[in-house]
Design brief:
The two termini are 29 Å apart. The chain contains seven helices and 20 strands. It has 450 residues and is an alpha+beta fold. Strand 11 and strand 12 form a beta hairpin. Helices cover 22% and strands 47% of the residues. The N terminus is likely disordered.
C-alpha cells in the first residue's frame, strides 16, 4: 500500500503575499481528510460516542396495530448497541466543520399486544448531521457550539419472536422514534463534541521542554478559521529560558501554501526559529592550547601567526605555545531563501600567550562572521538542524604585537572553527526544536520546504 504524504512542513521568511494574513509564530492548515481521521478516532474509535449513548432510554410507544388491531405498547425501550458507526466531515467556509455520523442503533424493550407480552428488538438506521462552530476565543481556548443538529432516521427492522405485529406497527414505531430520537441523540453529540474539543485543545496548548535550556509554550493564537479546503490554526510559540525570561520574536504575515495531497501543513516563521536558536545555541567560551590534540591544524596556524609578527618585537612569545579562546558574539540568525537555509553566527577568536606572572599578551583578536549551511530533518516530532561551514569572513579587531594583515589566516581559522566549534553547535542543536502535536496528527512522510 502506498502511503500518502501525511505531513508537510514549510519554513517562512515573511516575504509571501498572504491571502489569509496571520501574525503568530506558527500556522497550520489541516485538510478535511485529516479532520475526519482525527474526529473519527476521538469520537468512534475511542468509544466516546458509544460510552455516552449507554443507558439511553426512550419514551414508551403506544398505539394500535398488533394482531386484530389490539392495543400495542412498547415499554422499557433502551439502547443495546451501536452498530457500524461511520463519521464524515465537510469544511464549511466561514462557518466551521459539518460532522455527520451514520450508525445502526439496536434497541430492546418489552412489547405488550393485547394480553401477550414479549421482548422486542428494533434496528434503526440514523444519520446525525451537526454544524460545529468555534466561538469565544480567550487565552488559547475556544468553545464549540453545535448549530443545526439534524437527525434523520432510515430503515427500521422490528423483530418479535411471535411475529404478531402487523406492518402498521412499523409506521407507529418510525413516527415515535422520529419524534423522540433527535431530542435524545443531539444533546449526546453536543456533549461528545465538547469533550473532544478539550482533548484537541490539549494538543495545541502545551509546554514542551527544549532539552535543559528552556521550554516552548505553544498556544492557540486566535479562532480557527475554515475554507473549503482546510481548517486554519494559528499558534503562538513563547520561547522561555530556564528561569522564565522570554526570548522575544517578531511576527510577520505570511500565507500557507496549498495542501495538495497532504493532511497537514505546518508553517514556521523565521523570527520564531531565531528565538529557538538563541535558546539552543548558548555555548560558553572555549579556551584550549593551540596544539594538535585540540585540532589537527594547530601547527599550521601557529606557524602562520608567527610569520605575521613584526620583526624586532621584544614582547613577542617566540616559540612559546599559544592559547586560543573562542566566544560567540551576539545571537545566531537564520536566513531563509527558496530551498536554502543559512545560519549566520559571529565568533570572536582570541589568540594569546599567558606569561608566568599571569599577564596575557593578545597576539590577535579576530572576529569571524560565519555563514553556516543548515540541513533540516524531522526526528521524533522535533525539527533538527545540522550545520556545516559555508563561508567565513575574517576581520581584525586588535593586536598587541602590531599584526595588521590577516588575509593568510582565513583558511587556518576556518579549519579551526570547523573542528572545534561546529561539533559544539551541532551537539546543541541535536536536541531539536519540539513541534506542536497538532490535533494528534502523526508526523509521517514529512515533506520539508523552505
Amino acid at each position: 500500500v502506498t502511503m500518502l504524504k501525511l505531513f508537510g512542513i514549510v519554513f517562512f521568511c515573511g516575504l509571501l503575499s498572504p491571502s489569509q494574513e496571520v501574525l503568530s509564530g506558527l500556522s497550520c492548515a489541516v485538510s478535511a481528510g485529516a479532520m475526519q481521521n482525527v474526529l473519527s478516532d476521538a469520537i468512534l474509535q475511542n468509544g466516546l460516542l458509544q460510552q455516552h449513548l449507554q443507558g439511553l432510554v426512550l419514551p414508551n410507544i403506544l398505539g394500535e396495530g398488533g394482531l386484530l388491531n389490539s392495543p400495542t405498547s412498547i415499554t422499557g425501550l433502551h439502547l443495546v448497541k451501536v452498530w457500524l458507526p461511520k463519521l464524515s466531515v465537510v469544511l464549511l467556509p466561514g462557518i466551521g466543520v459539518q460532522l455527520t455520523i451514520a450508525a445502526k442503533l439496536e434497541l430492546s424493550g418489552n412489547c405488550l399486544v393485547g394480553l401477550l407480552s414479549e421482548l422486542i428488538d428494533i434496528l434503526v438506521d440514523v444519520n446525525i448531521t451537526a454544524n460545529i462552530k468555534c466561538t469565544n476565543f480567550e487565552s488559547g481556548t475556544v468553545q464549540v457550539v453545535i448549530e443545526d443538529c439534524l437527525c434523520i432516521l432510515g430503515a427500521i427492522k422490528i423483530k418479535l419472536l411471535s411475529g404478531l405485529l402487523s406492518l402498521s406497527v412499523n409506521e407507529i414505531v418510525l413516527n415515535q422514534l422520529t419524534a423522540t430520537l433527535p431530542g435524545l441523540l443531539c444533546p449526546v453529540v453536543d456533549i461528545v463534541v465538547n469533550l473532544v474539543n478539550i482533548q484537541l485543545l490539549g494538543t495545541l496548548n502545551a509546554v514542551i521542554p527544549v532539552g535543559t535550556a528552556g521550554t516552548i509554550h505553544y498556544q492557540l493564537a486566535s479562532l480557527p478559521f475554515t475554507s473549503g479546503l482546510f481548517l486554519g490554526l494559528d499558534l503562538d510559540g513563547a520561547v522561555k529560558q530556564v528561569g522564565g525570561s522570554i526570548i522575544p520574536h517578531d511576527s510577520s504575515p505570511s500565507a500557507l501554501p496549498p495542501l495538495l495531497d497532504r493532511l497537514l501543513v505546518l508553517g514556521l516563521r523565521q523570527s520564531f526559529l531565531n528565538a529557538v536558536l538563541s535558546l539552543l545555541i548558548q555555548i560558553p567560551p572555549q579556551t584550549f592550547p593551540c596544539t594538535s590534540e585540540a585540532f589537527s591544524g594547530a601547527s599550521h596556524l601557529q606557524e602562520a601567526i608567527t610569520t605575521l609578527i613584526p620583526a624586532g618585537c621584544s614582547a613577542c612569545p617566540g616559540t612559546s605555545p599559544l592559547s586560543i579562546k573562542l566566544a560567540l558574539s551576539g545571537n545566531p540568525l537564520i536566513l531563509l531563501e527558496e530551498n536554502k537555509a543559512t545560519v549566520e553566527l559571529s565568533v570572536v577568536i582570541q589568540v594569546f600567550v599567558k606569561s608566568l606572572d599571569g599577564s596575557i599578551l593578545n597576539l590577535l583578536l579576530l572576529k569571524a562572521d560565519l555563514a553556516l549551511n543548515a540541513r533540516v530533518s524531522i526526528a521524533g516530532g522535533r525539527l533538527v538542524l545540522g550545520l556545516s561551514l559555508g563561508s567565513t569572513s575574517l576581520s581584525l579587531e586588535s593586536s598587541d604585537v602590531g599584526i595588521s594583515n590577516i588575509s593568510d589566516l582565513k583558511p587556518h581559522c576556518s579549519s579551526l572553527l570547523a573542528e572545534t566549534l561546529l561539533p559544539l553547535l551541532n551537539g546543541a542543536l541535536g536536541v531539536g526544536i519540539p513541534l506542536p502535536n497538532v490535533l494528534g496528527i502523526p508526523l509521517l512522510k514529512v515533506d520539508i520546504r523552505i
